[in-house]
Amino acid sequence: MQRFIAQRLLQSLLALVFLSVVVFFMTWATGDPVRFIKPPEEITEEEIEELRRKLGLDRPLVVQYVVFVSRAVRGDFGYAITLGQLPVTRVIMSRLPATLHLGAMAMAVVLIVAFPLGVFAAYNRGRAADTLARALAFAGQSVPEFWLALILILIFGVQLKWLPIAGREGGWTQWILPSITAGWFSMAGLLRITRSSVLEVLGSDYIRTARAKGMHERVVLWRHTVRNALITIITAVALLMVGMLNGIVLVETVFGWPGLGRLAVSAVTARDLFLVQGIVLLIGAMYLCANLLADIMYALVDPRIKLGGSQR
Question: Other C-beta atoms within 10 Å of 56: how many?
Fold first, then answer.
């Protein structure tokens, strides 16, 4: 098991190094960030060159990348150029809790709704409950998140005035609309995956054997069927969780949520080089950590996985 985790950890580190290379050179390809600090009529060429030297942007790109990596491993991503030279790490950490809280709430909605509904739909295949669940999954993967957000705001915020539509302060009601919107697509995906996985296991020979032995249906369903279906479901949950974090960028923008996604939009718009690099690397690291966690849980559920090394 230790060897399996070490292999996965090494792969994650290599992927993170590759991501740092892509992020660094792609952000530079968008243009000189110093020229976006002030309008051209408010800053002279001499001031631009002085600021470029101060930020180390006058060095060769390879040298800048080495400095960038050496600082990044210490948690230092430089200074946010457009936010009064505040440290990037401090800016990101001030917004990260809001994003993590929203992601946790959205994931809770996904698990509470999608997992039991997927199991129930598979067990009642072909019946009304199964049809309703499949319709919900289809709607979840067909309706864009931005459209859903606007409809929820219009109905529950503007017309009925039941729920607040912007901000984070004000109590638990502030979380309802953003959490549903952020988890909408993932909920549909997990429902379909859970249903398919449970259906596949229900058709296995050992399930028929368990029923032939007279086992109670509850034991057959939860101890034998669902447990064996968890291998696929666990991996799906980890990947959907990261995909949800990507979608949170839109959700935070629509609902005025003061999180990392909204910060990323403003950083890209302002072309704040160091802030964009820090945000993208952090999201990439979160994605890799989720994949690593999924691999470890995958091996714990099915001991055969670690015996095969990198094979699944």
Answer: 12
pLDDT digits (tens, 9 = 90+) for 269-278: 887 888 888 9
Give the span between the Cα atoms of 88 and 225, in whole angstroms.
48
pLDDT at position 113 over 80: yes
Using DSSP's 3-state secondary structure scheme, residue 4 falls into: helix
Provide the token pair at 199: 């259906």
| Cα 233 from Cα 190, distance rounded (Å) | 7
pLDDT of 155: 92
DSSP states along 168-217: S-SSGGGGHHHHHHHHHHHHHHHHHHHHHHHHHHHTSHHHHHHHHTT--H
CB atoms within 10 A of CB 170: 10
DSSP annotation of 35: G
> What is the amino acid identity at position 148?
L
33, 48 contact by CB (below 8 A): no
Indicate the DSSP class of residue 40.
G
Alpha-carbon torsion, ordered 121, 122, 127, 131, to 10 deg: 50
Q: Are 309 and 253 in contact (CB under 8 A)?
A: no
CB contact set of 74 (below 8 Å; sequence gap of 6+): none
Instruction: Express each pLDDT in 285-307 by its tens digit.
Output: 887 887 787 777 766 766 655 54
Of the candidates 92, 93, 97, which has an alpha carbon nearest to the alpha carbon of residue 274?
92
Kindly state the average pLDDT of the residues 60-70. Answer: 87
Query: What would the pLDDT profile of 230-248 be if each residue is shown by its tens digit?
Result: 877 877 787 787 677 767 8
For the chain, what is the radius of gyration of the CA atoms? 24
Report residue 55: phi and psi, to 5°: -90, -5
pTM of the predicted model, to two decimals? 0.77
Question: How high is the pLDDT of residue 157?
Answer: 87
